[in-house]
Specification:
By secondary structure, the chain is an all-alpha fold. Helix content is about 75%, strand content about 0%.
Length: about 450
């Protein structure tokens, strides 16, 4: 007797889309219609799962993936995506089970092994998690997520540092490494890493994962457009980033974050009127948006409106006192207006929040040098000069000049020589000439 095709017992979910944005409602309803028309087609059932997954309808996505798996049991996609949806909904045991099932089909899948390791770790099954991460590292010893995972599973904090050496913007690894440094009495080093964490806490190394990339492409809401805009901005494609933010607002006119982002984008494109409009729209939608006030402060500073800029930075800091950049920018405005004591306090606060902030060390060092507090000024300028970018020659120049004023002629010569070399390295000929003249006078 011949066997028929696999049958499914898990029913298709019914999702109420009344409260969704119109674009999302249309996407889900279209996928539901197709799956209901052919409920035994694993591709259409799985596609409905992916559409629901993309819009965080996780229970429905799990049901669809389970039904697709029943219809097509030998395919990798369905247990893997089921595991991802289960993990996102907090069901670590189900996630671990499904990651393991997917690995029976594709034993070399790095995303599945990493997912399995995370799911086992969530359950406190550290030995099982460590095996999954070690399997990845056996093929790729520089895989940052596996290094981070092994650090957690096997209590090997040195792996956090290894992961950061490969991907310095890895938020979770930054936090874990800073905690280890704090526990082992290295508080100053810990502060350097923790200062970076607030801006990078959601940042993770890119992972080639075709299935989850496909899920994200099904997102019909504004979040996909915001991600694309962020990517375009990072690549310097500012007009494209603006267009994507505007498309996101077409889908959701009440999306305050898009207006906040447009303040900065329009300012950088030298379109202050449009930046002002974006600021007013952002504040109308979200009166307590620290980012909106901060971005407007930057715009006002660029437009030579120091009073407006100062008010904006002060308001931003009332809402979010942990913004080191806002403290620094406020300090610069206070310094320009002659309020040196207040400026010094602002720079000190910026440094407390971000000990690696070279420009804050530089500005505070210059301020103190002008007050003839040379020892403290030199300390800050030395920290600024540890940077390695186009501002480094200026920092070294200021350090050498301050050392000379303090009577430290040998140290001043060394700093000015380093400044001269760095200025030439960065193609800053005019600055190199000025440094060379000061070096000649010292000699």
């Amino acid at each position: 007797m011949a066997c028929g095709p696999p049958r499914a017992t898990t029913p298709l979910p019914l999702v109420n889309t009344e409260t969704f944005l119109p674009s999302i409602r249309r996407a889900i309803q279209a996928a539901q219609y197709d799956a209901q028309a052919k409920p035994h087609d694993p591709a259409l059932v799985g596609r409905l799962g992916m559409v629901l997954h993309a819009h965080e309808q996780l229970a429905g996505a799990v049901a669809c993936y389970q039904r697709a798996r029943e219809l097509e049991p030998q395919r990798f996609d369905w247990p893997y995506l089921l595991a991802r949806a289960a993990a996102a909904s907090g069901d670590a045991p189900r996630a671990a089970e499904m990651f393991a099932q997917s690995l029976k089909v594709q034993p070399d899948s790095t995303p599945a092994l990493l997912g399995l390791g995370d799911a086992e770790l969530t359950q406190g099954r550290n030995a099982e998690a460590a095996r999954a991460f070690q399997t990845v590292l056996g093929r790729d010893p520089k895989q940052p997520q596996a290094l981070f995972g092994l650090g957690r599973a096997a209590n090997q904090p040195e792996n956090y540092e290894k992961a950061l050496a490969i991907y310095p913007a890895y938020g979770a690894a930054l936090f874990a490494w800073a905690q280890h440094l704090q526990r082992t009495g290295q508080a100053e080093r810990a502060q350097v890493y923790m200062a970076q964490y607030p801006k990078l806490k959601t940042s993770a190394p890119p992972l080639e994962d075709r299935l989850m990339d496909s899920v994200r492409e099904f997102n019909a809401g504004p979040s996909r457009l915001l991600r694309q805009a962020q990517s375009a901005e990072a690549q310097g494609q500012l007009p494209a980033a603006v267009e994507l933010q505007l498309q996101a607002l077409q889908l959701d006119p009440k999306l305050a974050q898009a207006h906040v982002n447009l303040i900065s984008l329009y300012a950088r494109l030298n379109q202050p009127d449009k930046a002002q409009q974006a600021y007013r729209a952002a504040i109308a939608l979200e009166p307590n948006s620290a980012d909106a006030y901060y971005n407007y402060g930057v715009l006002a500073g660029m437009s030579n409106q120091p009073t407006e800029a100062r008010r904006a930075f002060e308001r931003s800091l009332q809402i979010d006192p942990g913004n080191a950049d806002a403290h620094h920018n406020l300090g610069a405005l206070l310094q320009e207006s002659g309020q040196l004591a207040a400026a010094g306090r602002a720079f000190e606060q910026a440094i407390a929040l971000n000990p690696a902030a070279a420009n804050s060390h530089f500005q505070l060092g210059r301020l103190l040098a002008n007050q003839k507090q040379y020892a403290v000024a030199i300390s800050h300028l030395q920290k600024a000069a540890q940077s390695d970018d186009q501002a480094t020659p200026t920092y070294l120049y200021a350090l050498g000049a301050t050392q000379a004023r303090a009577g430290q002629r040998d140290a001043a010569r060394a700093s000015l020589q380093a400044a001269f070399q760095q200025a030439n390295r960065w193609g800053q000929g005019q600055l190199a000439s000025a440094i060379g003249q000061d070096l000649a006078r010292l000699r």
